[in-house]
Amino acid sequence: MSRVAKRPLDLPAGVSLQVSGQEITVKGPKGVITMRCPEAVEVSVDGSVASVAPAANAENSALAGTIRSVLGNHVHGVSQGFERGLELVGVGYRAQAQGKVLNLSLGFSHPIAFEVPEGITIETPTQTEIVVKGHDCQQVGQVAANIRSFRPPEPYKGKGVKYKGERILRKEAKKK
Fold it and tell me: Given Cys at both, which of 23, 76, 83, 117 links 133, Cβ 3.0 to 4.6 Å?
C-alpha cells in the first residue's frame, strides 16, 4: 500500500469532511470544496481524523496516495488558504488590482485587463508585485500561471512576469 495513503489525515478545528457515496465535501472558514472520489478508493472519517484506503486490490494503492494528498491540500486550503506571489521585472511594467479586474502594463501597445475568477483574490502590494490568494491550490496555481503567460521571463535580460523567488537562467549575449 502507498506510504502516503497510510498516514491519517488530521482535520483542524473548524474543518469538516463529509463523504456521501463518491462525493467528498470539505468545509472550513475559507470556503467549501467538493470533489469526486474514484470507486477504487475508500475514504472514511472518524471524528477529526480521515483515512484513505484502496478498495480491493493493490493496483489502487498509488491512486489512494494521490487522493490522500489532494484531500490534504483541500483541508489546508479551507483552513489556511494558499497564496502565490508574482514579480514584474522590466521598465514600465506595472500591475493594479481594481475590484475583480487586474490591469497589467507589460510593455505591449495596449494594457491587459485580466478578469479574476470566482474564489480567487488578487492583491498588488506594490506596482511590481502581485499576490494571488484562494482556497483551492490548483486554481491558485492556474491563475498565477495564466498571469505569467502574458509575458514570461526572457533569458537575456530577465524581463517579464516571474514567480516570487524564481531564478531565471540567463544566457550570454551574442559576441562580436
Answer: 83
